[in-house]
Design a protein that fits this description.
It is a single chain. By secondary structure, this protein is of the alpha+beta class. About 30% of the residues lie in helices and about 40% in strands. The strands form two sheets. Strands 1, 5, 6, 7 and 8 form a five-stranded antiparallel sheet that branches. A five-stranded antiparallel sheet has the order 4-3-2-9-10. The longest helix is centred in the N-terminal third of the chain and has 31 residues, at about 1-30. The relative contact order is 0.18.
């Protein structure tokens, strides 16, 4: 009887360690992502025309990090990974978490899209983790209480001198023009 009790106690402790380790890994993953705050700005994008359908994009992040790259096309597009917590995991935070994943150019016409210069930049390249990332795990295994959304992206027209603020709300990305060239480009597009 004593051996069975010792074995049961050892298995119980292993289970406790597994749960605590899993919770720690989950918290570590969330801590690596950024949390959306009341539709706060997650990045600003400024554009300078280089050539026809070619612009220098400058992204300025809230931590004052700057990313510059040439973007080809008629629109810039920004993709993000987006995670919302459900059920008891809401105790970790009620606002969604996000990572800006990719900046790319997009053409208005299919013909230009097929023949034009492609421009795609990985915004996560410097943040490779040695452990599996929560977003990928939730996509592969449908984790309960974790909602990882596909297709969280925003795109806007490019114009010389245009500047946009990209914001993240509870349901995804949105962009707002900040300068007259950006307002004019959005009006001409719509």
């Amino acid at each position: 009887m004593g051996r069975i009790f010792s074995l049961f106690r050892a298995m119980l402790w292993l289970g406790v360690f597994a749960v605590v380790g899993g919770a720690g890994l989950f918290y570590y993953q969330l801590n690596g992502m950024l949390q959306a705050r009341d539709n706060g700005i997650v990045v600003t994008i400024s554009l300078e025309k280089l050539d026809r359908q070619s612009f220098q994009a400058t992204l300025v992040f809230p931590d004052e990090r700057v990313f510059k790259a040439p973007v080809h096309g008629d629109f810039w597009m920004l993709d993000a990974r987006f995670i919302s917590l459900k059920g008891p995991l809401r105790l970790f935070g009620t606002e969604p978490y996000y990572e800006l994943e990719r900046l790319s150019g997009r053409y208005a016409s299919v013909r230009d899209e097929k023949a034009g210069i492609r421009s795609v930049y990985d915004l996560l390249a410097d943040e490779e983790a040695a452990i599996p990332d929560l977003w990928s795990l939730s996509q592969a295994y449908e984790l309960p209480w974790v909602d990882a959304k596909y297709g969280v992206a925003v795109y806007m027209p490019m114009s010389h001198g245009a500047r946009y603020a990209v914001l993240l709300g509870t349901d995804g990305l949105k962009a707002r023009p900040l300068t007259a060239p950006a307002f004019d480009a959005v009006q001409a597009w719509q």
